[in-house]
Amino acid sequence: MVMTSPVPFASSRRSRSSPVRRQSAARSGGSCVVSHKVAAAMLHLALLGVVFGALALALSASTGRTGLSRGIPAVLAVLAYIVNALAPLVDVFDRIRQVSPFFQYIGHDPLRQGTAWDSVLVSVLTIAVLVALAVAGFRRRDVAG
Predict the structure, then answer these.
(1) Which pLDDT value is given to residue 39?
(2) What gap in Å lies between CA 47 and CA 106, rounded to an integer?
(3) Which residues touch 108 (CB under 8 Å, ≥6 apart)?
(4) CA-to-CA distance for 9 and 82, rounded, in angstroms?
(5) Residue 64 has pLDDT above 60, yes or no
(6) How many angstroms separate the Cα of 82 from the Cα of each of 43, 58, 90, 111, 126?
(7) E strands along the chain, which residues?
(8) Is 118's pLDDT higher than 90?
(9) How is residue 97 annotated by DSSP?
(10) Alpha carbon distance 74, 96 (integer Å)
C-alpha cells in the first residue's frame, strides 16, 4: 500500500519555494542585484514616457491645439520605435538611432548592465529643453483673452 499526499505535488511545491532558500537568496545579495537592474529599467522607461509627455506639453503650450499635442508625439513615438528596431538592418537608421528616445531607453540594456547614466543625462536634458520651450510658448499665448 502506497501512501499519497492529499494535495497532489505538495512535496515538490514546498521544496521549490522553501523559506530557507528565500532567506539565503536575500542574504547573498542576489535579489538586491536583480532589483537594482529592474529599477534601472524602470527609470529608463519613466524617462521615455516623460520625454514624449514633455513634447506633448511643449506642443500644447505653444499651439494651443490638443489634436497636435496628442498626434505628433504619438506619431514620433512610433517612428522612433521603428527606427530603433530596424537600425541593425538599415544603414540610414543606424546613423540616426543614437538620437532616438527608444535607444536612450533600451539601447544600453539596463536589465543586464544597470543604469546608463549617459542615457539618463540625454533624456533629462531633452526633457529640460522641451519644458523650457513649453514655458516660453505658454508665456507668448494670450490666455486672459
Answers:
(1) 94
(2) 11
(3) 116, 119
(4) 46
(5) yes
(6) 22, 23, 11, 21, 20
(7) none
(8) yes
(9) G
(10) 19
